[in-house]
Design a protein that fits this description.
Blueprint lengths: L10 E5 L4 H12 L3 E6 L2 H10 L6 E5 L7 H13 L4 E4 L14 H29 L3 E6 L13 H21 L4 E8 L9 H4 L5 H13 L9 H12 L10 E4 L7
Parallel strand pairs: 1-2, 1-4, 2-3, 4-5, 5-6, 6-7
Helix pairs in contact: 1-8, 3-4, 4-5
């Protein structure tokens, strides 16, 4: 019998794939035999990531700002050029500058929305158009956050609102694209230990000890007793891209170690 979790030979775009969750997702897809276009604002880091992943699949890198007009079409064109098709899009690119709303500037708010929501929407539009042209269905996976369901802390109003938008965008796209055999779902990670875990705190005026204490306090509330790892999200993404998730559309898969329960 065919392995329902098989993604071998699929052509995958992973945005924000140079490090952290995105790199973990790209690595797992390549390990499972998929070909992956790793895109990132930092083209050099994306190239390093593409060279570092190992498996029967192939990875190539592309520098792109998902917030720019035409970014989605450019990624799709490159994926088709390299691999011949677009079968899976993982919208992972996102930013999360930390500032209470009373200190948030319009420019900061707009940039978060341009990357996290607008970039996700128009990358999905471009990928879906190609998938419809191919007449073979496909999967779009949007990386949201548990902050779309419940704020983790003070200081992320723009991020939280943008990720809430990603959830509703996911449902709307799922309804629109399901007749074309395109499944759209979202993953809502909890606290994931990555190179950028403390990045939004660094501009908050906190000392290193205070930042460590905040992260430790968050971890203490996770029922499974640990921060998540990028591969916890990567395996969920492979699942949603595979035939094992063939009857799942418009859903949100929470991967948070039970954090929302506490």
């Amino acid at each position: 019998m065919k392995d329902p979790f098989d993604v071998k030979g699929k052509s995958v775009i992973v945005t924000g794939g140079a490090m952290g969750i995105g790199r973990g997702i790209a690595s797992r897809f390549v390990e499972r035999g998929a070909n992956v276009l790793i895109t990132d604002l930092d083209g050099e880091a994306a190239a390093v990531a593409a060279k570092s992943v190992e498996g029967p699949g192939r990875a190539v890198a592309m520098a792109v700002d998902v917030a720019l007009d035409g970014a989605g079409e450019a990624m799709v064109a490159r994926c088709v050029e390299e691999f011949g098709s677009v079968d899976v899009l993982v919208n992972n690119a996102g930013i999360y500058p930390m500032a209470p709303m009373l200190q948030t500037t319009p420019e900061m708010f707009d940039r978060v929305y341009q990357v996290n929501l607008r970039g996700t929407a128009f990358a999905a539009k471009a990928a879906a158009a190609r998938m419809i042209e191919q007449s073979a269905g496909g999967a779009i996976i949007n990386i949201a956050s548990i902050d779309a369901l419940h704020p983790s802390m003070v200081g992320l109003p723009a991020y939280d609102a943008s990720k809430g938008g990603v959830l509703m965008l996911t449902k709307s796209l799922a309804l629109e694209l399901a007749p074309h055999g395109i499944r759209v779902n979202a993953i809502a990670p909890g606290g994931i230990a990555t190179e950028g875990t403390s990045a939004p705190l660094q501009g908050s005026g906190m000392t290193e000890a205070e930042m460590d204490a905040m992260i430790a306090g968050f971890t203490a509330k996770v029922p499974l007793g640990r921060m998540g790892q990028p591969d916890d999200i990567a395996t969920a993404a492979v699942f949603l891209a595979s035939e094992a998730a063939a009857y799942i559309a418009g859903d949100i898969l929470v991967v948070d170690g039970g954090r929302l329960l506490s």
